[in-house]
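Quick illustration for those who missed Monday's session on complexes.
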Amino acid sequence: MTQRVTVADLVAMKRRGERIVMVTAYDYPTARLADEAGIPVILVGDSLGNTVLGYETTIPVTLSDMLHHTRAVTRAVRRALVVADMPFLTFQVTPEEALRNAGRLVQEGGAQAVKVEGGGPVVETVARLVRAGIPVMGHLGLTPQSVHALGGYRVQARSVAAIRQLFADALALEEAGAFAIVLELIPAPVARAVSEVVQVPTIGIGAGPGCDGQVQVLTDLLGLTPGPLPRHARAYADLAGIVSEALRRYAEDVRNGAFPGEAESFGLPRDLDAETVEAIAQEYRARREGGRDARGSDCG
Ligand code: KIV
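Prediction with 3-methyl-2-oxobutanoic acid bound:
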């Protein structure tokens, strides 16, 4: 049986100086490929709002959206630790409500952990979930659910006060029991320093190479994101180009009769021949003609 990656494995990887790889996934086929590629952490990010559901932000994503996609991912994954994002307003109201919602992502969604965005205001909630046995990943820096308050998708921690706040939040999350912390859009030297101070792994996105691990949004990584990539992302394939070309060729083959060919078609069973089929067709052709004549005479 395949051994599931655990939160303890990730902390041990940090201690050994082994970089942690995380990627987002939102559906069965890509989650399966990520797992088979040996990626140890798969995040069902609420970025599914932008990447898959066509929203402009992650704010419209609901718990039921997250459950639907988390189930698809966990049905595919055998080895990786699956972390499900808690969407906007499912964890900010009260720790008890957050516990109920996180519990659904674990119990109904099959995730092994959840992720919550933010520092100070969510620390009590993180502690509550951890006490209930739910592993929690934190998320600091650019927290997309607060995009309107932050005034856009901008690099964070760019003043002494903001850097101090980031350190304080990271340590508070660690103390509350978070097993890892995503650092998003943070100057590389700041993220490196935070990663050295906290004992739990940091997973960076737009936070430079000094983090303990890296996460990329799958559609950016595969070249499926429409328009220009965010500066922090790197595409390792051009799937949009491959998919467009495949669809164009398929449409052309259907239009010119090249698809389906013999290889994609089924012949008659041995005990039937083309004459029998033709005889049946004749019979029905005649019936249809007869019906037409009858309707014609009714009308006439
Ligand atoms: O939702 C998401 O994909 C995320 C990553 C960017 C860390 O939170």
